[in-house]
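RESIDUES AND SHAPES:
===
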Amino acid sequence: MSNDSVEAIFIGVPITIALIAIIIAVVVATRRSHYKSNTVTEYTVSDNAVVMQKRTDMEYSAMSESHYLVNYVTFNTENYGRIELRVPNNRIGLLREGDRGELVFENRKKRGFKRFDLI
């Protein structure tokens, strides 16, 4: 073995190990963040929420190269003021402006809205 090949091994091996360690650290950090954001079970409840506005937005998915509709509802709550939450397509028709009820949400996702009975 010549001196050049020995030097290449002593330089190349640590660099390779460092790159592998960085890749592993990035993968672990990404998975930890994804797991943490998907396992949040903390729900927030607002006892007196009012549906203020409904709107539909068109978004583009680069992965599927297509457009799709996303529905949002703006609620006025006593505790949080005005908040806009994303609502699934099969639930947007169940709400109308002026509805009052109990709002349950997690992060920025609507989990439920129980309308108060109108008398």
Q: What stands out?
A: The mean pLDDT is 81. The two ends are 93 Å apart (CA to CA). DSSP finds one helix and five strands in the chain. Helices lie at 3-38.
